[in-house]
Model the fold of this input.
Amino acid sequence: MPKFRTLDDVDVRGKRVLLRADLNVPMKNGIVTDATRIVRLAPTIEALLGRGAKVIVMSHFGRPEGKRDPAFPLRPLVAPLSRAIGGRDVVFAEDCIGDEAKRVVSTLRPGQVALLENLRFHKEEEANSPDFARALAELGEVYVDDAFSAAHRAHASIDALARLLPNAAGKLMQAELTALTAALETPRRPVLALIGGAKVSTKLDLLRFLIGKVDILVVAGAMANTFLFAEGREIGGSLCERDLVDSAHETLLLAHQRKCRVVLPEDVVIAATLEPGVATRTVGIAEVPSDMMILDVGPVTVTRIAALLEEARTLVWNGPLGAFETPPFDRGTVAVAKKIGELTRAGKLLSVAGGGDTVAALDAAGVTDELSYVSTAGGAFLEWLEGRELPGVMALASNET
Ligand code: 3PG
Ligand code: MG
Done:
């Protein structure tokens, strides 16, 4: 893991701290429907306030494409943010740079919080513009990045700005990086990676990287169908990327060379259509009729994965094992999630999970709090799983100021 400063390494007393957060939370009719990212940001704000800082929170929200789009305001985040930090006032600035931002920031006293309007209302944000970064830097004296989930974006508030001020990682960024490092860079072995989801095409780099890192790779979800098809199995009308047969073969060969054990489903739950309550059957992997679809892993596979998890000391998980949004095809995912929760609680497994669908599946299984670490990140978690350098992490590591 690259070296970076933490809140313990910067002096913030009486200073204006620019805190890059990821308040890109799901929202319906102006109401936040999942406050996880806000709740997980709160300890950083509290720590800064406790050290006598003036905290200026900035974030993107949605994809307004560089325009002041009324569909993506940050003002509705004022109340939830205030609630998350014990009801403290949060003052709002209608713009993230310029006179309005300066005016609001100048009213802050130590222990007070401001929230700036959506960074992406300025196209310069996504362009990583040095001028825009300088305009942001004028507002503060120290930069703290707590937006791991946006660390895969080389945007001005994440990259250029981090290089203009003394910088540090916030507590959430630090926790994410520590958990991810423990899982893949210095793990207790055996390490098992459980990779599900629909498409192999979006996860080829990730599979290749993991094969070099982990001892056991379990592939499930619709993406397993492509591997099964490549092995010559009948998969009926199942989702499958038939053009990726060669890539699937190469991936399996690479795993063989790197002595990484690849585990595919042995039995599956099938149905004629993907609909709630449709008639289902469980069959061995060699018995899928040509007019049926594979929609979940079967109980034999679940038992096999559970046994492998018993052996493993570290788990990295991304992607559901079946079409979990449509019951009863959530059963495999829920059963495995519960097993992971149980082993983690017993202290036998370090478990790290991330990615949008995965978190939804963990929530549905009711085990989110039982895992060692659940990342708040979607895209950034996946890029990290691909072994890519994340611009947000690299900018903190540069420590040029
Ligand atoms: C996310 O929600 O994945 C991050 O906030 C990044 O958002 P983006 O994909 O719009 O850059
Ligand atoms: Mg995204």
About this structure: The longest helix spans residues 36-50. The chain has a mean pLDDT of 95.
